[in-house]
Write a structure and sequence with these properties.
The protein has 184 residues and is an alpha+beta fold. It has one domain (36-172): Aminopeptidase. The protein has 4 helices and 10 strands. Strand 7, helix 3 (113-125) and strand 8 form a beta-alpha-beta unit. The longest helix is centred in the middle third of the chain and has 13 residues, at 113-125. The two termini are 20 Å apart.
Length: 184
């Protein structure tokens, strides 16, 4: 693994793969999963706009996401450049963690980056249940979440600015590992 707060994911350019949450994902390059903070605001703002267009989080809300206590915030980087980001909110009273946002730059999709970010965020939140919202039309993301054990539990009608519905997906995790301490 690596320096505290950093996880290194790398494999040779062969048929080798990594196993995360029981799924083998071929990894074609090297990237780090590390804590994000307010210094990542510019890179995160760019990533959000590329990944989500009109549904990108506003700049000030991203600043809150990067600074509020107790929120898990992780970035995937290659040569210090952000290629992916995830944020999770462990709501202890509800015993549920919420994935607030998860995005990976298009050039880095289908390489296990989202899977690695999601698995680490779930682990750090340490909740017995994790929920997230995804566009009804985002079939690649829905397929990924279903492979990881997420199931649809609700529909939020016209959730996105375009009027598209948001599907609420939930996953029950084995006994929480006690990690759930945000990433400060």
């Amino acid at each position: 693994m690596g320096v505290k707060g950093k996880l290194l994911f790398s494999k040779q350019l062969s048929t080798a793969g990594s196993i995360i949450s029981g799924i083998v994902i071929p990894v074609q390059s090297e990237y780090l999963i590390e804590n994000a903070n307010w210094r990542d605001l510019g890179a995160l703002n760019t990533l959000e706009k590329v990944c989500f267009g009109e549904d990108a989080w506003p700049y000030l809300e991203l600043l809150g996401l990067l600074t509020f206590p107790g929120v898990v915030r992780l970035k995937a980087t290659v040569r210090r450049e952000m290629i992916g980001f995830i944020s999770g909110d462990a709501r202890r009273a509800e015993k549920t963690g919420w994935i607030l946002t998860l995005g990976v730059l298009p050039a880095w999709r289908r390489r296990g980056v989202a899977l690695a970010l999601l698995a680490e965020c779930e682990r750090r939140m340490g909740m017995p249940q994790v929920k997230l919202t995804v566009r009804r039309g985002n079939l690649p993301a829905i397929r990924l979440y279903e492979k990881l054990g997420y199931q649809q539990v609700d529909i939020w009608s016209k959730y996105y600015r375009s009027g598209e519905d948001g599907l609420v997906l939930a996953k029950h995790l084995p006994a929480a590992n006690g990690a759930g301490h945000g990433s400060g």
